[in-house]
Amino acid sequence: MGTAIHHALDDGEGDVYFFEGPYFMKVLLTEDGALRVVGVCDRHPAPDDGGVIEAEVTVPVHEVLDAYRNAVRSLRQWAQERGEAEVLAVLERMSELDEACHDL
């Protein structure tokens, strides 16, 4: 998710793919600086092969960043309390978005 947010802020568009299933999310930067998050099902492709939009929402960037940071912070706390070194290592690599978007 962090990578998709980062790509949306830098390039205007980012994607989030899941391990299983036909769903993915597109994160798009709008002209007014918000993020549009679109849930897409590609099980039954649309005529343009982009899939079918199942849900969408437009949210101010700062709200998305705050929610992302809070989720990562909660996961980090959980992993530290339980000694989950592998999870902590993954979360450490995710900190790049937090640092890159600190001033937004």
Q: Care to describe what's here?
A:
By secondary structure, the chain is an alpha+beta fold. Helices cover about 45% and strands about 30% of the residues. It has helices at about 1-10, 60-80, 85-100, and strands at about 15, 25-30, 35-40, 50-60. A four-stranded antiparallel β-sheet has the order 1-2-3-4. A hairpin with a 4-residue loop joins β2 (about 25-30) and β3. α1 (about 1-10) runs parallel beside α3 (about 85-100) and α2 (about 60-80) runs antiparallel to α3. It is globular, with a radius of gyration of 15 Å. The two termini are about 15 Å apart. The mean pLDDT is about 85.
Describe this protein with a few key phrases:
104 residues; alpha+beta
Sheet with the most strands: spatial strand order: 1-2-3-4
Order of helices and strands: HEEEEHH
Question: Largest beta sheet, briefly?
Answer: 4 strands, antiparallel
Rg, nearest Å: 15 Å
End-to-end distance: 17 Å
The level of helicity is 40-55%
Low-confidence residue ranges: none
Strand content: 25-35%
Q: For this entry, what is the oligomeric state of its chains?
A: single chain
Strands, total number: 4
The global form is globular
